[in-house]
């Protein structure tokens, strides 16, 4: 009888959060909107910059390809071209970087009905090769630009945008505090 130490939890929650050279990050959030509505909004990648602060721009370059310009730590930008893969209508959108991109990444976002009609559970799982390897990942954490932190904040903004039509920023309160 053999014993496996197989961990069937999502890769992003396992102690070994790497898939080959890719570090896996991800989050889930429940959004009080219909699954099809959320899927359709996300499927149009040009919508993503509305709630993903790290995205400077996304341009469609083909039916399933898009060019992304992403803000990186220390005022730099990273450009990559992605292609959509493993799209299941109304349920899942996958993507991966293509050759020539500055970073190697792949990921998927899935949409499942929340229990008892409470909306949709949106789960994002992103694999990436950290710029400059593990050291780059640690440095990026110091600047709160680490992808796991960004994923959490971006899903919260997606929830606010889809449930209320706007994203609360807290800038009014910061301005009031600064003016005292």
Give an account of the 3D structure:
Helices cover 25% and strands 34% of the residues. The protein has an 8-stranded antiparallel β-sheet with strand order 1-2-8-7-6-5-4-3. Strand 1 and strand 2 form a beta hairpin. It is an alpha+beta fold and 180 residues long. The N and C termini lie far apart (70 Å). It is built from 4 helices and 8 strands. It holds the Pfam family Polyketide_cyc2. This is SRPBCC family protein.
Give the termini distance in whole angstroms: 70 Å
Neighbour order of strands in the largest sheet: 1-2-8-7-6-5-4-3
Could you spell the SSE succession in H and E letters?
Answer: EEHEEEEEEHHH
Number of helices: 4
Radius of gyration: 18 Å
Query: Strand pairing plus helix content: what structural class?
Result: alpha+beta
Approximate strand percentage: 25-35%
Low-confidence stretches: none
Q: In oligomeric terms, what are we looking at? A: single chain
Average the pLDDT over all residues and give the rounded result. Answer: 81
* Main sheet overview: 8 strands, antiparallel
Region (Disordered): 1-21
Pfam families: Polyketide_cyc2
Protein name: SRPBCC family protein
Organism: Devosia rhizoryzae
Q: How do the helices and strands line up, and which of them pair or pack?
A:
Elements: E1 18-19, E2 22-31, H1 35-43, E3 55-60, E4 65-71, E5 77-88, E6 92-97, E7 105-113, E8 120-128, H2 133-142, H3 147-164, H4 171-178
Antiparallel strand pairs: 1-2, 2-8, 3-4, 4-5, 5-6, 6-7, 7-8
What attributes characterize this protein structure?
180 residues; alpha+beta; eight-stranded antiparallel sheet; 4 helices; 8 strands; 25% helix
């Amino acid at each position: 009888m053999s014993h496996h130490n197989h961990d069937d939890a999502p890769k992003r929650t396992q102690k070994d959060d790497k898939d080959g050279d890719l570090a896996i990050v991800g989050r889930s959030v429940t959004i009080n909107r219909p699954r099809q509505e959320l899927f359709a909004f996300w499927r149009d990648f040009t919508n993503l910059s509305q709630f993903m602060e790290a995205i400077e721009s996304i341009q469609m370059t083909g039916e399933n390809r898009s060019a992304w310009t992403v803000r990186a730590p220390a005022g730099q930008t990273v450009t990559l071209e992605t292609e959509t893969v493993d799209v299941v209508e109304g349920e899942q959108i996958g993507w991966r970087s293509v050759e020539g991109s500055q970073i190697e990444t792949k990921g998927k976002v899935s949409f499942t009905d929340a229990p008892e009609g409470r909306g949709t559970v949106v789960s994002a799982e992103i694999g990436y090769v950290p710029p400059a390897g593990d050291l780059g990942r640690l440095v990026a954490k110091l600047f709160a630009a680490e992808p796991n932190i960004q994923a959490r904040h971006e899903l919260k903004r997606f929830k606010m945008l889809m449930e209320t039509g706007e994203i609360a920023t807290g800038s009014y309160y910061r301005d009031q505090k600064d003016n005292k």
